[in-house]
Amino acid sequence: MNIVHFGSNGWHARFDEAFTPQALYSVALTLARIYEAEKTRSTILVGYDTRSQSRMLAYVVAATMADQGFYVRVLNYAVTTPMISFMMSDSSYALGIMLSGADYAGTYGGVVLRARGGGLVAANIWSQLDGLVEQAIPDETQQLITALTNHEIALEDLDHTSNAPRQDVRSLYKKEILTFVKNMAPHGLYRPLTVVLDYMHGATSGIAAELFEALGCKVITTRQDTRDDFGGVHPCPIKPWTKHSYEVLRSVHADVAVIYDGDGMRFSLIDNEAQQVPLHLIAPCILDFLVRFCGERGRVVTTQASSVRICRLAERLNCETSIVPVGYARIADELTERDVLLASDEYAGICVPGFGIWRDGILGSLLVIRYLQMRNEALHTIIATMSSDLGNMDYIRKDLRLDPAKMQTFSTMLPGVNPASIAQKTPCAVSHADGLRLAFDDGSWIMLRPSRTQPTVRIYAEAPNLAERNELLRAAYALAQSKL
């Protein structure tokens, strides 16, 4: 029997292994019990990404919830996860359920939950889903699933008596996000740009281009058709999956290429010289734009595994910085204070709370484009200058996989580890808040963090140059191995 492994970021697994209709039925049935009090007052919103199996499993979730007496709105087109968060700002919805494999390969499915306001659901909700065992789907529920799949029942029939709005989600989202971006810096000279948008066959297709054109950009789109196998790549906007993006940018001599992941939560950039923009310089670009060009003020939130460069820029711009343990749930806790200007995780997941309390790849990319337009400089030049100003740093993350017994040993030993020196460096700060993080006077640091979901140790290192970074990485590996 397959078991559900749910966390704050949802659950992801292979379709041909654990991510089965029976497992999703168990998840939906448990959610129906948790949200019992909302049954006659609110609607459950269900969305899905471009995977055909995601749509089918959305029908499983919707039919199960409807069979339990809930009003359910199932979207009849693929959307991004941020768009589900956006719709959850409407109080008519009690819960948003998104079926998406995110940036995993096409063989994977996933489900994430969004609460009212668009943020993550509380831990006391997803913890009740963790450890569920799949169960057989009753005949009456299966009949409803089959009827939905065969279009014998209209999706609208599942929520025909609810008060939830029926607006087109894509149109409403595009209108609101464009208004927000234009209002951030309504006055100025905006130079025209040629932009390549690489959708990687994901859910941002058909959404982003219109927004970039509204900002005065010439847009060339690529990989915009939907494919279950994502054209043989992972819909993850990093090397080696971005090779196609480089080729298109060179062929059209574009100013920048924007590459989105499968569900629109993240993006990456390739500059006009066909160089990948370091993910850790994306958030500094947006922060610089918000403060210097838009006159915004507020706190910056980032994680312990993020580059020191975002904190350096925040200090120069007189912005308070809060550094939290890894995991967006920790960032989300900070957003309740309502003084946050920008939040970013270690993988350039960008949140601008002025628009919404979720990570949004389309919003982040639009703000970068506005920044380029107002700087009137090539992206390659901007990144080179920023890197020099903030101090050149070389960042890396590697994983050390262990068997479960050794993983338990490592996790037990780590809180007591406090080395006096490592790689001939003496730590100036030691933190056990999220594994072990050692910081040094020159800004370099290493971190060893047990994964919360896998038998893996995450090892991070950042230093002013490649040689020093690699030396720290080797020392971190040796330290981890010595505790097994």
TrEMBL record:
Cofactor(s) needed for function: Mg(2+)
Superkingdom of this protein's organism: Bacteria
Keyword Magnesium: yes
InterPro entries (UniProt xref): A-D-PHexomutase_a/b/a-I (IPR005844), A-D-PHexomutase_a/b/a-I/II/III (IPR016055), A-D-PHexomutase_a/b/a-II (IPR005845), A-D-PHexomutase_a/b/a-III (IPR005846), A-D-PHexomutase_C (IPR005843), A-D-PHexomutase_C_sf (IPR036900), Alpha-D-phosphohexomutase_SF (IPR005841)
Gene Ontology biological process terms, A to Z: carbohydrate metabolic process
The Alpha-D-phosphohexomutase C-terminal domain, residue ranges: 432-472
GO terms for MF: intramolecular phosphotransferase activity; metal ion binding
Entry keyword Magnesium: yes
Positions of the Alpha-D-phosphohexomutase alpha/beta/alpha domain: 5-120, 190-273, 298-384
Keywords: Isomerase, Magnesium, Metal-binding, Phosphoprotein
Family statement: Belongs to the phosphohexose mutase family.
Name by which UniProt lists this protein: Phosphoglucomutase/phosphomannomutase, alpha/beta/alpha domain II
Annotated organism of origin: Fannyhessea vaginae DSM 15829
